[in-house]
Design goal:
The complex is a heterodimer of chains A (about 500) and B (about 300).
Chain A: H1 11-23, H2 26-45, H3 53-62, H4 64-72, H5 82-111, E1 128-131, H6 136-146, E2 150-154, E3 157-162, H7 165-190, E4 192-199, E5 203-205, E6 213-216, E7 228-239, E8 246-257, E9 263-269, E10 274-276, E11 279-296, E12 301-306, E13 310-311, E14 318-324, E15 330-338, E16 341-344, E17 348-351, E18 360-368, E19 388-396, E20 401-404, E21 407-424, H8 428-447, E22 451-457, E23 460-467, H9 474-486
Antiparallel strand pairs in A: 1-23, 2-3, 3-22, 4-6, 4-21, 5-7, 7-8, 8-9, 10-11, 11-12, 11-21, 13-14, 14-15, 15-18, 16-17, 18-19, 20-21, 22-23
Chain B: H1 2-36, H2 49-80, H3 88-109, H4 116-134, H5 148-183, H6 196-229, H7 237-259, H8 263-287
Helix pairs in contact in B: 1-2, 1-4, 2-3, 3-4, 3-5, 5-6, 5-8, 6-7, 6-8, 7-8
The chains are: A alpha+beta (about 500), B mainly alpha (about 300).
């Protein structure tokens, strides 16, 4: 006789329950945790858009086909990619599914009394027995109380238990991780982050249009931008004379909040941003803006003012572009600014010190179509010279003028610029609180030993102990306990 | 004045290398002689008493080397007027100090002298690389490093690293001895090493002890990054690898405590987690990009 093995129908509810159990199992959580670690690796080896957009651009320029495929797998935005998000969201669901039931269980267990003393103590570890003096039970009771054991006394025996902090700490650690994640999500939804380049002497009005780049959280309300105006009064950079390494940056500003009549002087340094509630203002970078005047052949001013250049090395050799779209034909200057000029055989003009001790502006003038009307967004630091002709090269000291048939350009001097970053991060305090609780929970759970100690007193005294997770230290505690009981024998 | 201190620091580091070399030689002699010496009752058993003196010299030299290196690190700090954690040369000499320090502290509790040979080699290699390749003149800090958090974050990270590497050395010893035992009996010299269970427990305890400190180092770094760079977490390569190390050790602890991994599997996971730390230190510091580029190379 043979009977077919019956496979029970799972049904949709059963399937869901099965899936949930699989997801919240320790094995799955462990795999997800390791997967999260492995998934973080590519983002540290491939340049990321959020940190290094220029290098990402180079990938696209050097090997466009490969870069296109890498982009399809979000390799340039690993930490915001669907697959990375999938892993940590699953991990956190798994974590919640694991921790919540355990919290309930622990809540009940913590209020329950320890189990009754087992009958055969001699089968337990750390067993010892000797003839009774009569007062052992009282001594044990006092000892347990002083050591804050939870006790159950019954029929001449005491069952004592200690070490619930282990599980409590463990649960707090995991719950705190959820709080950290909530804090981070809260910031990305309700926060904002923006950058602006400001020349020394100029003003910044905090409205969305003042920023050079601005990322608003999905639920950030533009009206929440705090009203303020700041004026960059002075920027001081100190450099090591030998190594050119920066030693100190100090930014002095005049700060005015909604009541514009009331101003105050403030200082921003690299490790001390200006704080306004949830909003902080950071000093991020600095560089030079050469001041130029461009004239047409009749001597009319076509462009005048500071043009920010981008630093390329530690000695602040900077590159930039001066575009004069109103000239006819259009004129553009591809420029290089060196604060302390020197000539090098291989590289041409180089800067040998970041302070402006002997500044030069090196220009290549181009005539033609700047391509600004094509609608394709352009970098303000570069010129697309594909539809232009070079008409001259010149190196200028401050005050000098370069004259060409269509007009002239004068290098008037330079300003320093600073890049400030304004950040509103409303969730960071939750993340910090979560981190602190996580560490405390971790300490409590790793350094608490859960153990039980029993004593039964009849004609003879019997004691035994049991350590959970085979944690060390119970042996010496039992020795101390027994010695205490035997005192006064 | 600062230059005098910098020279003094260099002399102290060189002297400590000489002393660590003596310690290495003594450990090597002890390891080698323990094999050769036989007692009357059995040719397989060894007489450790005869190598005991050498073992003591080895440990004494290790302590002396530690003291000299400690003085060297302090002098380096004095010469620059700050904590000596501004570039990779300074990280490396402090890391070697932390590693031999972790070994000496663990030695007070466990008889780890068998590990001394490995520890002295690792310390010498680190110091040698630091002096020959990574050396940079003593200089003030760049603005981003000027913060109290430098002391807190870097000291926590370096101590964690020292203990992680010690746990790694023990896990490696476990795997080596485990392979040896699975082929048959331990060879004569390996018999004096602790049992597999002891090694297994020891590497776990070191990790469990230092994991909260590593967590703290990462969080302290995040708090510092918030004030220096305007964000507490930006997936900078260094941050990413610190996170990977954290995740790997978290997985290790879970695997042991909750799933019950022991022995070989646990040792491999421990080695993997430790190697993510080393990768972060060596590769990301030297070849990586990002904001943690203080190697000075």
């Amino acid at each position: 006789m043979s009977k077919e093995i019956e496979v029970p129908e799972l049904g949709s509810v059963g399937l869901l329950r099965y899936g949930w159990r699989q997801l919240t199992s320790m094995r799955t959580a462990l795999i997800l945790l390791l997967l999260l670690g492995v998934a973080s690796i590519p983002g540290s080896l491939v340049p990321q858009r959020t940190q290094n957009p220029i290098q990402v651009g180079e990938y696209f320029k050097n090997s466009p086909e490969l870069a296109k495929w890498m982009d399809r797998f979000s390799l340039f935005d690993v930490y915001g990619s669907p697959w990375f998000s999938a892993i940590y969201i699953l991990l956190f669901i798994s974590l919640i599914g694991c921790v919540l039931p355990r919290t309930l269980e622990h809540f009940h267990a913590a209020r329950a009394l320890p189990p009754v003393t087992p009958k055969n103590l001699d089968r337990m570890e750390h067993f010892s027995t000797w003839s009774s003096q009569g007062d052992e039970l009282d001594k044990a009771r006092a000892w347990f109380k002083s050591k804050r054991f939870r006790v159950l006394e019954k029929d001449g025996s005491i069952s004592a238990e200690k070490g619930f902090m282990r599980e409590t700490g463990n649960l707090f650690f995991h719950l705190a991780l959820i709080l950290v994640l909530l804090g981070i999500s809260f910031s990305s939804l309700f926060g904002m982050r923006g950058m602006a380049i400001i020349n020394v002497g100029e003003r910044f009005v905090n409205t969305t249009t003042s920023y050079d780049s601005l990322n608003l959280g999905k639920l950030f309300n533009e009206n929440n931008l705090p009203d303020f105006v700041l004026t960059v009064d002075k920027f001081t950079a100190k450099y090591n004379v030998v190594t050119s390494a920066p030693e100190d940056y100090t930014l002095d500003i005049t700060f005015a909040t909604d009541d514009f009549n009331k101003t105050e002087k403030r200082t921003i340094k690299v490790n001390s941003p200006l704080k306004l509630g949830d909003t902080s203002i950071y000093l991020q970078a600095n560089g030079y803006s050469p001041v130029v005047t461009v004239r047409d052949s009749k001597g009319n001013v076509a462009l005048q003012g500071p043009v920010p250049f981008l630093p390329q090395d530690g000695n602040l050799r900077s590159i930039g572009a001066i575009k004069v779209p109103d000239a006819d034909p259009q004129i553009g200057f591809v420029g290089s600014f060196v604060p302390t000029y020197s000539r090098s055989g291989t590289d041409g003009a180089v800067s040998v010190f970041p302070e402006a001790l002997d500044p030069r502006l090196l220009l290549a003038a181009w005539l033609g179509d700047l391509g600004l009307d094509s609608g394709v967004p352009q970098s303000v630091y570069r010129i697309d010279t594909s539809k232009m002709n070079q008409i001259g090269l010149k190196s200028l000291k401050p005050g000098e003028t370069f004259t060409y048939p269509q007009g002239s350009i004068t290098f008037e001097g330079y300003f320093q610029w600073v890049n400030i970053e304004i950040v509103n991060d409303p969730g960071k305090n939750y993340a910090l609180l979560g981190s602190i609780v996580a560490i405390l929970g971790l300490l409590a759970s790793l350094f608490t030993r859960r153990r039980r100690i029993w004593i039964r007193v009849g004609k003879s005294v019997e004691v035994a102990g049991l350590a959970k997770n085979a944690a060390p230290g119970l042996e010496s505690e039992m020795v101390e306990f027994v010695a205490m009981l035997k005192v006064g024998k | 004045m600062s230059r005098t201190w910098a020279y003094l620091s260099n002399y102290l580091v060189y002297s400590s290398m000489a002393v660590y070399t003596l310690s290495f030689i003594a450990h090597a002699i002890e390891t080698a002689w323990a094999v050769r010496v036989t007692t009357e009752d059995s040719k397989k058993n060894m007489d450790y008493k005869r190598t005991e003196k050498v073992a003591r010299i080895a440990t004494a030299m290790m302590i002396l080397g530690f003291v000299l290196l400690f003085a060297g690190v302090v002098a380096r700090g004095v010469s620059a007027g700050r904590v000596p954690w501004g570039n990779m040369y300074e990280f490396s000499i402090t890391g070697a100090l932390a590693f031999s320090g972790a070994y000496l502290v663990a030695l007070r509790k466990y008889d780890l002298r068998w590990l001394g040979l490995l520890v002295s080699i690792a310390v010498l290699l680190t110091l040698g690389t630091a002096v020959a390749v990574l050396y940079r003149p003593s200089a003030p800090l760049v603005p981003a490093l000027k913060s109290t958090w430098l002391v807190i974050h870097v000291s926590a990270a370096i101590i964690s690293g020292g203990v992680f590497l010690l746990a790694n050395a023990i896990a490696a010893a476990y795997l080596y001895l485990d392979a040896m035992e699975s082929r048959g009996e331990r060879t004569a010299w390996a018999k004096r090493l602790p049992s597999l269970e002891v090694l297994d427990q020891l590497s776990y305890r070191l990790v469990a002890f230092v994991f909260p400190l590593w967590t703290f180092a990462v969080i302290a770094g995040a708090i510092w990054a918030e004030s220096a760079w305007g964000r507490y977490w930006g997936w900078d390569p260094k941050e990413t690898w610190a996170f990977i190390t954290w995740v790997a050790y978290a997985a290790y602890l879970h695997a042991r405590v909750t799933v019950g991994w022991r022995g070989r599997k646990a040792a491999w996971l421990c080695l993997f987690a430790g190697s993510t730390f080393l990768f972060n230190y060596v590769y990301i510091n030297i070849w990586g990009t990002g904001k943690h580029t203080y190697s000075g190379l």
